[in-house]
Each structure stands twice: as C-alpha cells, then as structure tokens.
Amino acid sequence: MKVILAGFNIDKSQIDKLAEKEKVTPETLSAAYARISRDPRDVPELRSEAIEKVKKARRSNRAIVFGMSHHSVAEHAYFNFDVLEISRLALEELEARRIGVAYTEKSQRYIKLEGDFVLPAEFSEKDAEKFSKLVHIQNDFYQKTFPKLLEYQSAIHPELKGKAAEADRRGISTKMNRARNTLEGWAKEDARYGLSLATQAQLGLSFNARTLEYAIRKMRYSELAEVRDLSQKLYASAKKVAPSLIILSDPQEFQKAFQRKLEEDHLKFTKSHLRKFVGKLKKEISGDNSIRLPEISYSKNVKFISENDIDKNLMAAIIHHHSQLSIEKAYQLAENILQNRKAREEFFPTVWKFISLFDAMPREFEFTDKLKFEVIVSASNFAQLKRHRLMTILAQDYDPELGITIPNSLKMIKAEVEFQKLCQQSETLYFEFLPKYGKAAEYCLTNAHRRRVLISVNPRELYHFSRLREDEHAQWDIKETAGNMLDLARRTAPLSFQFAGGKNQFL
Q: Is 290 inside any structural domain?
C-alpha cells in the first residue's frame, strides 16, 4: 500500500508568492482523479501532467464533469472563503447547503457585538432611515441589557463569580479567565435576542466545487438582493481559479462550451410556482374535513407527526413549505387532493415541472419514513438548529403572529417589558415594509422572533442531535427544543431511544 499526500489547503497569500502561481488551481486534482478509471498510468503521473498542462486539464474537466455528468469529480477541488459584513438573515440562505461544506461563524454567544448591521438594498431612502432608527433602538437595548444580564448571571452563579475574581487577582488575562468568559457568554447569548436579523456576521466558509457551484446557482435567484450579490461575488472569486469546475454557474459560458442552453427554470421559477400552485389548491380542492388526519402529539411549540403514507407525507411537506399553513392544515389539503382523482394525478408532475438534468429532486422528498416534527423556534434557536444539515429542515418565513422567545434572565433583571416594547417596534416596521419588500421585511425582526419549522430526521441523526443539544453545555433555547423532541420520540419508540440524551449523560 502507498499513501501519498496529494495536496492540502494553503492560504492564498502563500500561493501569490509562488513563481508559477497561474498553474496553481484545484482543477488539476479533479482532472487527474477523473482519469483514474480509464488511464493505466499511476495517479502521481496523472497529477503531474495536469499541473503542467492546465488548459488540457480544464478541457478534460468540462468533458468529464459536465459532458459525461460525473459531477462527483468536482468534489476533489476545495475552496476557502472569508465572508464579512453579511447579515444573519442572508447567512441562513448561505448555510442551507448540507454536504461538501464547512462553516465557522463569529458567534453572537461569545463575541460582544458593536452594532454593525446590513442596510438592505431593497429599502427606499425614507424607509432605510426608519429601519436604521429601529436597529439603533435594538442595539441600544443590547448594550444596555448586557451588563445587567452579566450582573444577574454573576448573582445566580456565585461560585463562578468567585473563580473569575480569583483569576483576576492572580493576574490571569481576560482571554484565559474561563469563569468570567462563561458568565459573559451567558449574558451575551441572552442579550442578543433583541438584535435585528440585519446584524452583521462573518464566517470562514469552505466549499467543494460541486457544492459551491450549486450554491452560486441557487442564490442567484434569491428573493434577497444581498444573497444575489453574495452569489455573484462567490462566482467572480472562484471563476479566476477554477473556471472549468463551476461552469453551471454561468449559463452563457455553459452554452458556449456545450452548444446547448443551460436550463435554469427550476431555480428561477419552482419556488414561486409552487406557492401559486398550493394557493390555488387551497381554493379549489375541498373535501370532507372530518377525515382522519395524522396522529399529532404536542409538547409546547413542538409537534410530533406520525404518518407512514409516503405520498401523503410528500404532499403535505410540499404544501407546508410553500405556504404559511400549519402542518395539520397541510395534511388536510393533502388528503383532499388524494381523494380527488384529477388533482392527485396532476400534483407531482406540477411539482417537478421545471426540474432539469442538472437539478436534484426537491428536499421535501426526504420527508418520509422518518421521525417527523413541527417546531416553533426563535431565530436564535434556528441559527443552531440549521447546522444539523443531515436533517431535513423546511422553514417557513418568520411570523410575528407566533410570538417571541424571551430569555428568563431578561425577566429576572426586570427587562421583560422593555424587551417586549422593542419587539413590538420591530414588528410595526416589519408589517409596514412587508407589502413593499416581501421577504426583506424580515430584516426588521429580532433573534427572538419565531418561525415554524418542519423536521424529518432518521433515528441515527436524532441521536447525534440529542448528544449535542441535550448536553449540559447546550444553549438553553435549543436544549429545550431538543428535550421536547426526544420526549415525543421516546413516546413513539421507547426501546430505540432509551439511550438518547446529552453527552454528559452518555459518558
């Protein structure tokens, strides 16, 4: 056996110092590995040739990855990006990718924020001024509340307060004072509930070429101008380094290379098409409202759905994702569709109307034969939930009608009334902007505002979720959601989930 280190990520500043930096591209790895199955030469020889003949390697990639549809070859090429001055709302679309990607964010739980925010391009000058005033109110609440929350956390955790003071006396730096950092972290994570979804974030982002290409394509048709701009910036950066591996990101380049049009209709139209389609079904399809619905169990803002009919599950998931209906009403409509022969026969062909050769089936098609939940979570909770990428997570838009999540610590420091007033101000501007700006109005909302989320998860992934999110170190909001989900799962399958729990319980 031989194991040869073929390459690894290095910082671009180091690449720029190389004498022949024009030959440094991840395309050579993809081109060499693509030829392994049919070329008798050893892999190192294939890599050497690709490095020396970059143009040939790029032609090979176009032919193999796109001409022969061997897209997995593009996964050998990896890209690293620094992303700064992006809003929390836009971050949700960026981080919707699950496979072939890694994200590391600057955390609102550990970093004290200074009030930077994104001003949405959709807003008029007059409304931008209103929005800026709202954000300043939100940020003022954060700055004013943080020291009070820190004082509260110190009071209810006197042992940590003592350890922090002792570390200060011993001259330990603030950075290494773990007790103080813990107390401040708890204060920061609760103060952030009053912050806008326009608050700036930054992250380290890594994509393989296949995932990067799909992210660029999908985000190009986002409802948010900020996300569309992000798509273009990612494409412009990657095209300089590896044009042969992201050719699906540019319809003009694709047509030039393959003499045929790149079908983008799925990414352009499916979302709006399905919203209209579901809206039409709600008006036109009726049936017996007393028919059996899926068995639904409740635990606060979490619902567990027990249904084994695959067609019905997929229909309900599509209806739910493309409407603001509760899951009960989505299943009711699905059942009525199934009882209507014409609607039943037309439903799925209509759903995949715009899907082409280069498109995957909708993510809703994962929503069957697994444990299924509807949860109502805050934006802060969702920011953690969305990281569990092997779950099927289908989120509705944020909905102020669902209320807000209020950290108990804000109640303990007598800041609840002021916090509620802040959220009401946020909602007032949200409803004013909603008819004019649609999705972009959500920038006005806070981390405390909620949305409905439909989750499908297999038992293995739910165990992983439980280990992380029921652990003693987990953040309280998502810990409560995880506890409710596992409580409902145990009722359904007590033997399968008898060992579920946080890492501290497991160890």
A: yes
